[in-house]
Design brief:
The complex is a heterodimer of chains A (about 290) and B (about 900). In chain A, a hairpin with a 3-residue loop joins strand 5 and strand 6. Chain A is built from ten helices and 15 strands. Chain A is an alpha+beta fold. Chain B has about 900 residues and is α+β, with helices and mostly antiparallel strands. In chain B, helix 13 crosses helix 14, helix 17 packs parallel to helix 23 and helix 22 packs across helix 23. Classes of the chains: A alpha+beta (about 290), B alpha+beta (about 900). At the A-B interface, strand 1, strand 2, strand 4, helix 5 and helix 10 of A face strand 4, helix 6 and helix 24 of B. The complex binds flavin-adenine dinucleotide and FE2/S2 (inorganic) cluster (2 copies). The site of one FE2/S2 (inorganic) cluster has 12 residues of chain B, from loops.
């Protein structure tokens, strides 16, 4: 479990790759450590400066890997890689999350990057967030004070900010069961085909009745506010409409507060998001049933 | 120190590793396990060059802690190339298709493709794109890579015939590229050489002061020395154009761009791995900087260089006829203002190299496009005799113009001299992007008139080019633009003026096309506007005005032969009609997605503008009959090694595979000039032809053989058969010179040009190459995304010395043109990495059909013309014209990002 110590300028830093959660939590309690999983966010944001803290690698901890069925839903281990999510056979409501998984960076990134890393990194442009919000994911956290569960929307609190407390790890995400006839979709907009951070993205999960009218709707938008968010009012308005006729008004997008940056203007983002919602609804409705 | 040894299975062998905390697998593989086939292009997951397979899955080795790979199976190209049958077939397919140009992305492409093929032996193009989309290539335009993967296992096609001019043979230097054994800038140093880190300005303009450097060196473990301007023994200045040399190796009092060097630190490999530049004792005072042309031209602006008043570096001017009157008399007039930004070369190999002292001489090994120019520059910087300087270029992982300028060379030379030890340096991606030259941002206003019958009548062009902090190739851009801004058309009344302006930005220099791609955007966009205003077919309008033999250019130059632009346009006639009809059909059925077709033409003069630019090629035959070609023209992926050898072999009359290549090395190869201005095939190719012909003449004379005799060279014997019958000379007994040659030929070629007068009239180039592109795009009118669906590119290359390499240049150039049009913009401080600076990925470049036109040129070797830069000149305007065709919206600024396209569409819809 303890993989190396190297004396660097007097301080000993160690790379830990524990295999049990208890060991991991104990290590975290004892010393300041950088927590890593796939390192696809960790390394690019590091400077060349020496490592003054040790590293806690969560990728080998039993129970943090893989997707498993629970009585009332499905559990994804925090260290589950995007490529594992993409490859697993899952209910139709997960189609949005699976589509997002296939569009995170590149295959190389999907083979290393994890869903836990994505939410803990708390980037406004994290592709995992909108689909996980539409799946009503809750975050299972373990720490010095035991286990707690937090809705994802409360877990990510701001740009690069989460509710994670010192000594805590994200262990898993829990996805409650959804109507069996519901279906998800994901729309990502960027300036090129692969390896692109989203300008905006939208995820939906909807279920329609026999006449094609929406009877269950969840819509979430990313990269248009500090934290990706559900559009609850719109979800209510969509009930009873068909995906084809659904009309997205500026009012529906009022909760969003996009910024203008290198990638696009705020105005463009709002404009694009309305269209992406329409398309995602259509996509989800076509595969419904 | 206590040891913590761990095992990794590397290419099937158990190896032990002892990584430090935070060591990346890429680092361990390269530095500790000498696995140099693992390339580093960004160290951040953005380029995929470092891709290895871990337990069968492709991952970026630069993002995996070595500790995470412990106990796992790691596969790299070098391992696969030896034993993996799939890799073997794939490598053959890469060679056959010409899928490796510079070869630096090739290891990442191949490892990723092997993983795909193991799971799916017969992938579709789309599956290849999904799998390989995480590996960037800046040279090939990806299509040949896709083809090579899809065709893996197809019957291999051997090098056929003698490989003479016109044969599509495989690259002669391709084997090392597909096995990953090619050695690039960071692959040649002894691993324990001292490492150099450059200290760079964090501000566009700043004053700085060092604090006790000697004390700092003494107090800091593992640091051997610091270099500043005080350590430059010769002159602290360099520049590619002697009259404009203005860039210091180290800034002395004030920096002029973000990323400019002020000092360099030399230390041990171990210490420098984690050297944090913030700990270096320097204090900065930020000063007011001018970052745009408008700011720089303001009377109150700080002046960047003494003697360049108003921050104007220089300008260029060409005029003929009476443009103002013509415009007044024209029946229709169009005008517009067009803007482009900085474009980064983004070769996948950051600048790197190694230097050492050998017998009192300095040897610099680095990636470069211009070894002799590097030598010239070091002669001045070091103040040394040039015979004591040797430049040994490494393989070059892409250049596209920026590796013409010095980068790592002076730091390497100064550090090796100061320490007396071998030293190495490899730029980080950010350093490379901050400090290397860029394509010039342009701000162009253009007005063009025409008669009702569709003949151009009056052309008035003014272009401001942001040349950044130093001149670099700015003067060349300023000269070339007015000569080329007409495009390949007959324009009797013409005025074009360019102004190069200094700003506090990285120096803008040479980038495929020297400013011509920017001017072509303005000219070719307005040609469409003119044709539309006249109600003429856009292709017909261009045909009508196109240059031809005997017709004067805007410089008054008349070519008696070889003007191929009409043939290029003619070749597009059928695809133009077909694809327009298809788009009309599509648009009738679709409201949100709209398709359009665009065309544009272009031309480009090969070689220096009205200046001498000779190349010399030397060859020798040894007593054992081996033929050696001293080929100093840098092959930066474009294929000079292959093309020049094919030309030489043809001239001499022996098969190409009999020739051994030497070079480039300033001790061994005569000066073949720089790899720029699309001059190597034409100029060095001619030198190779002359050298081959001279060798042939010598042999025939010696053997008293008839002129057209067939020459066969075998072990120590040369046989001649022809009209005279058969002769044999035994070379094994002939006297040899100091290099072991029994016959030597060394020939020089310099293109015939004439200086331009004050109106830009003269004969700037001995030949032009011509091109016309057609593109179909699909615009998502609601999201503003533009997706090119196909290109047809007609290129007049005079004679395709190697058709596969021609296609490779065309596809690679189009990909760069596409990037510049749709996504690329370098903004200092904001897009200094490949995460934020986006270049096209495998999924962004559509199929490209290349139509090779051969209008032989009287000056070119076997009629050949240059090609490299021509390619991306028509690409951008063709795409912009296609967007207009699809949506009715004309874009005046690139990159045409989704946000800009969508905004223009909305504005257009509101105005309608
Ligand atoms: C080239 C490239 C392209 C990318 N493209 C995309 C993209 O298209 N879309 C996208 O959303 N993202 C993208 N990313 C970002 C990144 O890949 C994802 O966010 C990924 O999911 C991060 O996961 P990881 O396991 O690599 O995180 P790491 O880098 O290992 O960790 C990220 C952060 O999360 C913390 N953390 C990780 N696991 C836990 C845990 N179990 N408990 C507590 N804290 C934890 C770490 O401490 C760290 O702060 C890209 C990254 C790169 C390098
Ligand atoms: S070097 Fe690893 S992805 Fe670029
Ligand atoms: S061949 Fe791909 S980067 Fe040069």
């Amino acid at each position: 479990m303890k993989l190396a110590s190297r004396r660097k300028k007097g301080c000993v830093v160690t790379y830990f790759a524990p295999t049990t959660l208890d060991d991991a939590l104990k290590l975290l309690r004892d010393q300041p450590l950088d927590v890593v999983a796939g390192c696809t966010d960790y390394f690019p944001t590091r400077t060349q400066a020496p490592f003054t803290r040790g590293i806690l690698d969560v990728s080998k901890i039993a129970g943090l890997q893989g997707i498993s069925a629970l009585d009332d839903g499905i559990r994804i281990g925090a260290a589950t890689r995007w490529s594992d999510i993409a490859r697993t056979t899952l209910p139709g409501s997960w189609a949005g999350l699976q589509a997002a998984a296939r569009q995170v960076g590149s295959l190389q990134i999907q083979n290393a990057g994890t869903v836990g890393g994505n939410i803990c990194n708390a980037s406004p442009a994290a592709d995992g967030m909108p689909p996980l919000l539409t799946l009503n994911a809750t975050v299972e956290i373990q720490g010095p004070n035991g286990v707690r569960h937090l809705p994802l929307a409360e877990f990510v609190t701001g740009v690069r900010q989460t509710d994670l407390q010192p000594g805590e790890l994200v262990v898993a995400l829990h996805i409650p069961n959804l109507p069996t006839h519901s279906h998800g979709a994901f729309e990502k907009l960027g300036s090129r085909r692969y390896l692109v951070i989203s300008v905006t993205m939208v995820a939906v999960v909807i279920a329609c009745d026999a006449a094609g009218r929406i009877e269950f709707a969840r819509v979430a938008v990313g990269a248009c506010s500090p934290v990706a968010q559900r559009l609850h009012d719109l979800e209510v308005n969509l009930i009873g409409q068909t995906a084809q006729e659904a009309c997205i008004t500026p009012d529906d997008l009022q909760g969003l507060s996009p910024i203008s940056d290198l990638r696009a203007s705020a105005e463009f983002r709002l404009d694009a998001v309305a269209e992406q919602i329409r398309r995602a609804l259509l996509k989800a409705s076509l595969t419904n049933g | 120190m206590d040891k913590h040894l761990h095992h990794i299975s590397l290419n099937g062998r158990e190896v032990t590793v002892d990584p430090a905390v935070g060591d990346r697998l890429s680092h361990t593989l390269r530095e500790d396990l000498h696995q140099l086939d693992v390339k580093i292009g960004c160290d951040a997951g953005d380029c995929g060059a470092c891709t290895v397979l871990v337990d069968g899955d492709p991952i970026c080795a630069c993002l995996m802690p070595t500790h995470q790979a412990i106990g796992k199976q790691v596969e790299t190209l070098a391992g696969m190339s030896e034993i993996d049958p799939i890799a073997g077939k794939l490598m053959d397919s890469f060679q056959h298709h010409g899928a490796a140009q510079c070869g630096v992305c090739t290891p990442g492409m191949l490892t990723t493709a092997v993983a795909l093929l193991r799971e799916n032996p017969t992938p579709s193009s789309a599956q290849v794109e999904d799998a390989l989309g995480g590996v960037l290539c800046r040279c090939t335009g990806y299509r040949k890579i896709i083809d090579a993967v899809v065709d893996t296992g197809a019957a291999p096609c051997d090098l056929e015939g003698n490989g003479h001019v016109g044969d599509a043979i495989q690259r002669l230097d391709g084997a090392d590229k597909v096995t990953g054994t090619e050695l690039f800038g960071d692959d040649v140093a002894p691993r324990d050489a001292l490492v150099i880190a450059v200290i760079r300005s964090p501000f566009p303009r700043a004053k700085f002061a060092f604090g006790g450097l000697d004390e700092w060196v003494k107090a800091t473990d593992g640091i051997s020395a610091v270099l500043t301007h005080a350590d430059v023994p010769g002159q602290n200045v360099f520049g590619v154009i002697p009259d404009f040399a203005d860039q210091p190796v180290f800034a002395e009092t004030e920096t002029r761009f973000r990323g400019e060097a002020v000092a360099a630190v030399i230390g041990t490999h171990q210490v420098m791995q984690n050297f944090a530049a913030e700990t270096f004792p320097v204090t900065w005072t930020q000063l007011h900087a001018v970052e745009t042309v408008t700011e720089a031209l303001d009377v109150t602006a700080p002046q960047l260089h003494l003697g360049r008043d108003g921050n104007v570096m220089c300008g260029g001017y060409v005029t003929t006829g009476d443009p103002q009157t013509a415009l007044k008399d024209a029946d229709v007039i169009v005008q517009g203002r067009f803007q482009t930004g900085f474009v980064e070369h983004a070769y996948i190999e950051p600048e790197a190299g190694f230097a050492q002292m050998v017998d009192g001489r300095i040897e610099v090994h680095a990636c470069t496009q211009a070894p002799v120019m590097d030598l010239d520059a070091l002669e001045i910087i070091l103040g040394w005799d040039r015979k004591d300087i040797r430049i040994l270029p490494t393989a070059v992982g892409g250049g596209f113009g920026a590796k013409l300028d010095l980068s790592v060379q002076p730091y390497l030379a100064l550090a090796a001299i100061k320490t007396g030890k071998p030293v190495r340096i490899a730029y980080s991606r950010m350093e490379s992007m901050q400090s290397s030259t860029k394509r010039h941002p342009s701000d162009i206003t253009l007005k063009i008139g025409a008669t009702a019958k569709g003949r151009i009548k009056g052309f008035d062009f003014l272009g401001h080019f942001n040349t950044g902090a130093y001149a670099s190739w700015g003067p060349t851009v300023a000269n070339r633009v007015p000569v080329h801004a007409s495009g390949p058309y007959q324009i009797d009344d013409y005025r074009a003026e360019s102004v190069g302006v200094h700003t506090h930005n990285p120096p803008a220099g040479a980038f495929r096309g020297f400013g011509v791609p920017q001017s072509a955007i303005a000219q070719e966009s307005l040609f469409d506007e003119l044709a539309d205003k006249l109600g003429m077919d856009r292709l017909e309008f261009r045909m009508l005005n196109a240059l031809d033999n005997h017709v004067p250019t805007v410089c008054g130059q008349r070519f008696e032969q070889g003007v191929g632009i009409k043939s290029c346009f003619a070749a597009l006639r059928k695809p133009w009609d077909e694809h327009r009809a298809k788009c009309d059909q599509f648009n009738r059925d679709n409201d949100v997605l709209k398709r359009g077709v665009g065309i544009a033409g272009g031309w480009y003069g090969c070689g220096n503008t009205s200046l001498p630019n000779p190349s010399t090629i030397k060859a020798g035959i040894k007593a054992d009959g081996s033929v050696v070609l001293h080929q100093g023209a840098m092959d930066i992926g474009q294929g000079a090694n292959t093309v020049i050898t094919q030309i030489f072999a043809t001239a001499l009359g022996v098969p190409v595979h009999q020739i051994t290549l030497v070079g480039a090395d300033t001790d061994q190869t005569p000066d073949a000039g720089k790899t720029s201005a699309s001059r190597q095939t034409y100029v060095s190719g001619n030198a190779a032809r002359l050298s081959g012909e001279a060798m042939r003449a010598q042999l025939l004379q010696r053997a008293n053989a008839a002129k057209g005799s067939k020459i066969e060279i075998t072990q120590g014997v040369i046989q001649f058969s022809g009209e005279h019958g058969e002769t044999v000379i035994d070379v094994s007994g002939l006297p040899v010179d100091h290099q072991g040659y029994v016959f030597v030929s060394e020939e020089t070629y310099d293109p015939p040009t004439k200086p331009l007068d004050e109106n830009g009239q003269g004969a700037p180039y001995a030949q032009f190459g011509y091109a016309a592109h057609l593109v179909t795009v699909e615009v998502d009118t609601r999201l503003g995304t533009v997706k090119p669906l196909l290109f047809v590119a007609a290129h007049d290359v005079g004679k395709a010395i190697n058709p596969t390499l021609v296609e490779g240049q065309v596809q690679g150039g189009i990909a760069q043109g596409l990037g510049m049009t749709l996504m690329e913009e370098y903004i200092p401080g904001r897009t200094e990495n490949l995460h934020d600076y986006l270049i096209p990925t495998m999924g962004d470049v559509p199929p490209i059909e290349t139509i090779i036109i051969e209008e032989p040129d009287a000056h070119g070797p076997y009629g050949a013309k240059g090609l490299g830069e021509h390619v991306l000149i028509p690409t951008a305007p063709a795409i912009l014209n296609a967007i207009k065709d699809a949506t009715g919206v004309r874009l005046y600024q690139v990159p045409a990002t989704p946000a800009r396209v969508r905004a223009a569409i909305k504005e257009y819809a509101n105005g309608k």
